[in-house]
Amino acid sequence: MAEDKNTEQPAQGPDKAQDKAPGKVIEVDNLVTHYGEREILKGVTLDVRENEIMVIMGGSGSGKSTLLRHLMALEMHTSGTMKILGQDIEKLTAMEMFHLRKKLGVAFQSGALFSSMTVGENIMLPLYEHTDLDPTTREIMARMKLEVVSLAGFENLMPAELSGGMVKRAAFARAIIMDPKILFCDEPSAGLDPVVASALDDLILDMRAAMGMTIVVVTHELESAFKIADRLTILDKGHILMIGTVDEVRKSKNERVQNLLNRMPEDDTIDPDEYLGRLTGEEIGGDATL
Amino acid sequence: MAPTDNQNWLALFFDKVGRYFVAGIEEIGNGGVLVVESFFWLIVGPRRKQPVRLGSIFAQMMEIGIQAIPIVALLASAIGVMLAIQGIHTLRIFGAESRVTIGIAFSVVREFSPLITGILVAGRSGSGLAARIGTMKINQEIDALKVMGINPTRFLVVPALLAMLVMVPMLTILSDLMGLLAAGLYVGIDLGISMAAYFDEVRDILTVDDVWHGIGKSVIFAILIAVIGVVNGASVTGGAEGVGKATTRSVVQAISAIIVTDMIFAFVATR
Q1: Of A23, A102, B86, B235, which one is least surrounded by beta carbons within 10 A?
Q2: CB contact, 8 Å: B149 with chain A?
Q3: What DSSP string runs through B78-113?
C-alpha cells in the first residue's frame, strides 16, 4: 500500500471490536488516479461505516474533491479498488450502476439545481424519473422533504430566486428525495455566513438522525467538520495523512495535520535556480518548462 | 546537432496541425457516438424504464420550431422577393423575364429554403443548445443528472435531436411556402402575372423529388445542428468564458457544416 508514512490509523479501542463494528458502506483500497500525466490521488485507502458521518478535509489541491468525485462514481480510477454498498465499481454493468446510483444522494457545492425548473420540479425529478408515483404523491413527497430542510412553501420559486443558503437546502432536499443510503455533500457551508453554515451543519446531523443514512462530507471548514464528524479523513497532496475521530485528529502529533488545524501555510523551500528558471522559461541546471 | 529555427518552426507547425486534426477527428467521433447513443436510448429506454419524455420533446419543439416561425417566415419571404428581383433583373437582359418563375421555384425549394432555415436554426437553437449544456456542465448540473441515475444523453440530447428532426423539415416547408408566396407577390406587381397563373406555373415546374431534395437536406442539417451544439456544449471548460467560446464555435461549425453538406448534397443529387 502506497500510503504516506505519516499516516495514522484510527485507534481501535477494546470496545470497538471488529465483529461489533457496523458494516462498511464504502471501501477504498489503494486508490490511484491521474488527470493526464498528473497523479492526483496517490494510493488512498479508507472505509466509511454505516450510519456514520465521515468528513474529508484537506487544503486546496489536496485531492478531496477528486476523491469525492470517485466516491460518487463520477470518475474512474487508474488503479486500486473501490466498493460502494459492497459493489466493486469497476465491475458494475451499466444497469447495476444505474440501480446503485438510485441509492446515492448528492448535494453539490453550487447546489446544481436545474435553472429551468422550479424548486419543486427539481426535487421531484428523481421521483419522476425512477418511480411510477402519481403527480400528487410526488408533490406531497417533495413538500415533505422541503419541510425537512425548512423550505416549506418555496416549491414554486425558481432557483435564481433563492439565497445561497436556500439553494443548498433545496439541493439537500433533492438529494434525499429517494431516501438514499449514502449522502455526499460537497462543501456544504462554503460561501455561507456562519449562522447559515451552522444551521446547515445541524441539518446534516438531523438528517442522519432521522433517516439513518451514511453521510460523506467534503469541507475545509474546521468548525463545521468538528461539529458534524464521527470520523475525519485528512488529505494532503493526494495522500491520506490520517483517519480518526475528532479527538484523535485534535491530538495528532503529525506536523501537517497540526498545520492544517492551526491554519498554518506549508513551509515550502524554494530552489532559487528552479524559481529563476520558471520565471525566465530557460533551463538552469535542469528541466524548466513554463 | 541542434535544430535550426526553420526546423523548429516546421516542427511546431506540423505539431499544431496534427493536434487540430486529432481534435477534429475526436469531435466527429464524439458526434457519431452521440447520435448512436441517442437512438439507443430512444429504442431501449422504455424497456429499461427510462423512456425519453414526450413533454421534453414538445418543449424543445416549441423552442426550436414554433418560436422560430415568425423569423423563418420573414427571412424566407425576403429571400423569395430577393430572388424575384434578381431573376427579373437578369432575365430582362435576354427579354425572358416571364420565365423567372422557373428560377424562383427551383432555387427556393431545392436550395434557399433548407439553407436559410438551417442557418437560422443553427444560429438560434444550435447556439442555445451549446450554451445550455455548457452552462449545465460548469454548474455541475450534468454531474447531478449522472449521480441521480439520469442519463444526460437521454434527458438532454434525445429530446433536442428529435425536436430538430421534426421541426427543421417543418420550418423548411414553411419557408418554401413563404418564399414562393412572397416571390409570387413581387412577380405579380412587377410583371403583372396573377397569383393563380404564378402558382400554376410553379406546380408545373416542381416535382415531388424537388421538394424531397430540400426536405432531405433539412433532415441532415437538423442532425448536424443538434450534434454540433451538444458536442461543443459538452466540451466547455473554464466557466462563463468557456460557454461563450463554445457557443460561438458551435454556430461557426454548424453553419460551415451546413454549407459544405449542402454543396456535397447538391453535387451528389444532380449526378
Answers
A1: A23
A2: yes
A3: HHHHHHHHHHHHHHHHHT-GGGHHHHHHHIIIIIIH
